[in-house]
Amino acid sequence: MKYISTRGKAPELGFEDVLLSGLANDGGLYIPKEWPKVDYKELPTTSYSEQAAYVIYPFVKDFLSYEELNDIASQAYSHFPSKEAIGLKEVEKGNYLLELFHGPTLAFKDFAMLLLAQFFETSLSKKNKSITILGATSGDTGSAAIEAFKNNKHCTVFILFPKGRVSEIQRKQMTTVDSASIYPIEIDGTFDDCQNLVKHLFQNLEFKEEVSLGAINSINWARVAAQIVYYFSTFQQLQSNRVSFSVPTGNFGDVMAGWVAKKMGLPIDKLIVATNDNDILDRAISNGDYFQEEVKATTSPSMDIQISSNFERLLFESLNRDSEKLRNLFLELKENNGFRIDNDTLNHIKNDFKSGKASEKKVKDTISKIYKASNIILDPHTAVGFYASAKIIDADVPMVNLGTAHPAKFSQAVIDAIGFKPEIPDRLKNIINKKEKFTELENNSEALISFIRKHSNV
Ligand SMILES: *Cc1c(COP(=O)(O)O)cnc(C)c1O
Hints:
With 458 residues, the protein is an alpha/beta fold. Helix content is 45%, strand content 16%. The strands form four sheets. Strands 3-4-14-9-10-13 form a six-stranded mixed sheet, sandwiched between helices. A five-stranded parallel sheet has the order 8-5-6-7-15, sandwiched between helices. α2 crosses α9 and α15 packs across α16. The longest helix is centred in the N-terminal third of the chain and has 19 residues. The chain binds pyridoxal-5'-phosphate.
């Protein structure tokens, strides 16, 4: 399996190089040269990790044998409390909640990050090489990464988070992990400042080389690949002929994985792209308007995004893989802050996707409504997905709403909606009183560079 860049000007690579390089060096994103088919009827029924090996193998087979992949997946998903890893609950007739928050940091990002950490460790120990991982987070990515990489022997991990803008639980998840190779860094700035610092350091090619900088953000193909699996598992549990999914969306990684599952042969009817007030993707999919606005702070911060990186992969596919057209769109984006998607391309997208948007009031109403009807407490991200799908439900096709985070992670929004605090799971309770350890840095790339130089293992 070879991978090509969406921008068409970077070399074709195999999985391992795609894993380690993250972004292609022409600024594009790597995507498989062709889509493999797998037979969903043959999906193992034994455990989630065996299902993961079955679904992911076609993408990694020139890197790992089936047995190696099986071992790696089994290691990765041993951090979940049960071998199913996911939970599926019928909330109302034909309307389901897919619980993706049973992992160690209580958000769906654990699924991809735990596997990514194992992939990195396997590759780097074969090569006998060390790297420096640098990432920015608005909360969930950072905690998932720190948890997944804490025992890694070949990576030193630096995670930037914005001062005062992550929830207390999210911060403690990052700052109470006892590991000599993990450095949570509080930046005196916003999430965008953190992301800009990361970009800046990746563009400094000398420094990138010097410390062997590696990326774990959701443009990394391996993260998308890992997320394909639970679409298959869910389908197997539902025992229906078709299914639709509603996906709370920010960077378009999770819903892209659903689209890939469909490409691989899973009978998915519609994928619903659900956004909060930061609705660039709802505007893009409903009428072709991909123009950036100011980022608004909402109760679902992991979706507070105006640049949706993985959407580039879908655009590339919907333009029939015409990378020149794609490059032109991204030039326009740079010059005019956005572009229009032409009708042909948009119709292509609408074959597979619908979209919806939930205002802050609708998020609150939805948490309250679902709680009253079924006693189930949704986190605000998940509530965005439920609100968007409610308008689209088709009586003949089951609707599965992806539950991307545990409500205890975003308890303030839940209190505001239903008047009390969701119970904190035991494995989270024990971090509340642990001592925090992190570094404070100003929003300045020189300071960050010298900190990384001093602490990196490379
Ligand atoms: C990251 C995240 C999302 C958005 O997922 P994307 O893959 O970026 O679209 C939604 N909900 C939660 C809780 C998240 O952490």
